Amino acid sequence: MKKQGCEIEAIGINYTIYTQKRETPFNIFRRNQHKKCLSGVQELHEVKELEKGNDPKAIRHVLKDVNCRAKPGEILAIVGPSGAGKSSFLEILAGKIEPESGSIYVNQKPVDKARFKKISGYVTQKDTLFPLLTVQETLSFSAKLRLKLPAKELSSRVKCLIQELGLDHVAGSRIGDDRIRGISGGERRRVSIGVELIHDPGVLILDEPTSGLDSTSALQIIDMLKTMAVTHGRTIILSIHQPCFRIMKLFNSILLLANGTILHHGTIEQLSLRLMLMGLQLPLHVNILEFAIESIDTIQKKSHTLLPQSTLMIKNSGKFTLQQLFQESKLIDEEPISMSIHNDFPSGFANSRLQEIVILTIRFWKIIYRTKELFGCKTLQMLVSGIVLGSVFYNLEDNLVGAQARVGLFAFILTYLLSSTTEALPIFLQEREILMKETSCGSYRVSSYAIANSLVYLPFLLILALLFSTPLYWMVGLNKQFMAFMHFLLLIWLILYTANSVVVCCSALVPNFIIGNSLVCAMMGSCALFSGYFVSKNEIPNYWIVMHYVSLFKYPFEGFLINEFSGSGKCLQCMFGMCLASGEQVLKEEGYGGEESRRKNLLIMVCFILLYRFISYVILRIRCSQGGFKKILISR
Hints:
Layout: E1 8-18, H1 40-52, E2 59-70, E3 75-79, H2 86-93, E4 101-106, E5 109-110, H3 113-116, E6 120-123, H4 135-146, H5 151-165, H6 185-197, E7 203-207, H7 215-232, E8 235-239, H8 245-248, E9 253-258, E10 261-266, H9 268-277, H10 288-294, H11 296-302, H12 308-316, H13 322-333, H14 353-370, H15 376-392, H16 400-419, H17 425-440, H18 446-476, H19 482-509, H20 513-529, H21 545-549, H22 554-565, E11 571-575, E12 578-582, H23 583-589, H24 596-625, H25 630-634
Parallel strand pairs: 3-8, 3-9, 6-7, 7-8
Antiparallel strand pairs: 1-2, 1-4, 4-5, 9-10, 11-12
Keywords: ATP-binding, Membrane, Nucleotide-binding, Transmembrane, Transmembrane helix, Transport
GO molecular function, one term: ABC-type transporter activity
Main location: membrane
């Protein structure tokens, strides 16, 4: 039995946004990065109050009573000038934002948004992909996360999809971006489409798939979509600004929008007849859609003057073209069964939490390993800095002068390690965009992402800690006990992991790199100031003392001092064979504990790491849950 597919129908869609209300850069509770949807009785009341007020520009009606229908095996193209409401309408159809009013039906039944996202794909205008993964890896990871199939079937599906997308020749090439050389823009757009096709959706929604492409690449994309619509019976809805003549001929129907209202919904032939009845003559060598968009004002003025019989003539015209007769016969020959929205796709997640963590960890590791700035440069940086510091503080003596130098070394290590981690911020910001996209369609749990992101950096940071600590520790001549070296290594590892956790937390909160970098620097600066090195605890004002206890510098700094001087048996000042000042005495005078504080400091550092990781998870979950996939997120 063949599937009839999904017929999408939208009735009375209205959507309104505020145009003058400014939002803070840290507002994570908005539904969209640049739009605020008004829904419900309260919001509708607010709109009416604003309309009655003295500031009519405070709101904007993006969509006004929009109706449309998209059929299986066909392409519905939404066209119109910039600001017509095309992208907003697509986001409403895809379930990304809520309309103020209106209904959406799938096969004449009210849409279940959570399950509809399982049987549909939404391709945004921006290609949100990992630039360091290859085409095959990108599609393979997407398949593993979204499908519950044996490995052989997954591999076969990915291979078939790559062939269908025409990407065989670049399957092993990296995606690339503006900084990293990779595949072409048209090929990258095909990969974005392939990511949304990997689960074989019945509905595919695309926001300007030809944007930024040359005419040849644009035609290839639309021709590929047309083939998919016909061969797989998919319902394809896309927006496009000004298609060329050959692209226009591939559309089964068009929806012409202007200022949020419908000017035409039907075939190209019907649009041509409508313009003719309005007295608009199409110039030679001019695309009819381009002419219609240029004549928007005239069409709006004359639409209400069309006689009822003229409107009926438009609806009945072009109904029996060869292309449409072929589509009609194709659908009649198929057994008329509805696509089961409730049974064809699982309502939950394709993988268990453990499987998701494993898949995401492998993907993260590939990205880290291939990021030269993060892996190669950071590895070299830690090794060189360890050697340089060791040469500067080479072979310190065991006296008061050497002790002061050691304390200065520990303070510099903390400042250096905790302040040189912002290079990973752009990577985390990029991951966040992809996370929100993938979780919005139910690929995996946010908690799985948070755990995988936490685990993948542990071995990498341990390697960095080893490269930094080994030359530094023995060149400086710190505590020569092996267990003291292991404790020093553990402290360096935890310091790096704490810095990594802070950057992850900030990247979940901030909107861009500039604000994130400023926030990280401000946090590290305040932590260093109140660590107890620059200003002793006793000299910190009472109203700032809480900053001393929440400082990320305080506990590793104390850990360094305890590891170096406690139980080492070092005499820092000796006179006539008598020890006047030992390491333990110095610690007590400065108010630091002895061996009993060693484990306490480690425990507090671990708690800081867990706290920042948990905060980042909460922020990401709020962002993703407000992206629209709420029903599945509740199960977490």
